[in-house]
Amino acid sequence: MVLLSPAMVSLALFLVAPIVFIAIYSFWLRVAEGTDVPAFQFGNWIAVLQDRYYWMGLSSTFKTSLITTAVCALIGYPTAYFLARIRFGNKALLLFLLFLPFWISYIIRTMAWISVLGKTGAVNTALIWLGIIDEPLKMLYNDFSVVMGLVYFLVPYMIINIYVSLDGIDRNLEASARTLGCSGWQAFREVTLPLSLPGLGAGCMLCFVLAAGSYVTPKLLGGPDTLFFPDLIYEAIISQLDWPTGAVLSVILLIALGLLVAVYNRFMSLSDIYKSFAR
């Protein structure tokens, strides 16, 4: 217990205490003079919960996060399968190359998509040069560009989770299935895929939670019609200086994502995520 004390104190100071402070602040009263007065009242919560605009923001955020997670899964599973099954002596090098972009600032990597998806960007320039389109496509400052930016940021998390799960599967199980008459696809469907589902589930949960809590990507790549919940929190706290409302929105997002994690832990296990980073 003594050895755990530093970790427990750090956890209490840097994680639990800020959350408790935000929860308490959500009940404070914002008076007409623009200041926040310590109080215990539910006016802030009632105002937010009755405002349809905030519910639309939460729904739009979860929808975009779900699409991002699905795209990450479609890209990440084949890539992870390739990394797990390739006959290469130094797989650590391939994993190193996978995470090499993380050495570059997240903001810089996000802003690079402006040069890729813009009207004079690489994609439109290539499509016009090939004669596929006559005028540039609008691929920037909308939900599409937000999803692309989030996928680029989150797909390595999906790959590493699935890779750890696939790499831990005994190859003899697949060989036994083939010996018993299964084709390659049947062996994958009946043996490999079910055994890799914990890694896929862990990757999906991580990608969804990180996407739903992202602020930079929607802010830089989103347009006027992009509605993202973290941006609503920023607007309430920074632009309007309405800390109690921002605190309520923060707690709502925390509760929503917390329920998602609880559901995942009910059907699978959070230990799958821990194993992914421990190996």
Low-confidence stretches: 273-279
- CATH architectural type: Orthogonal Bundle
Individual helix count: 13
Name the CATH superfamily assignment: MetI-like
Helicity level: over 70%
SSE string, helices as H and strands as E: HEEHHHHHHHHHHHH
The total number of structural domains is 1
Shape: globular
* Radius of gyration of CA atoms, rounded to a whole number: 23 Å
Q: Give me the count of strands.
A: 2
What's the N-to-C terminus distance? 26 Å
Biggest pleated-sheet summary: 2 strands, antiparallel
Determine the structural class based on helices, strands and strand pairing.
mainly alpha
Which percent range describes the beta-strand content? under 5%
CATH class: Mainly Alpha
In the CATH hierarchy, the third-tier topology is known as MetI-like fold
Strand line-up across the major sheet? 1-2
Arithmetic mean of pLDDT: 88
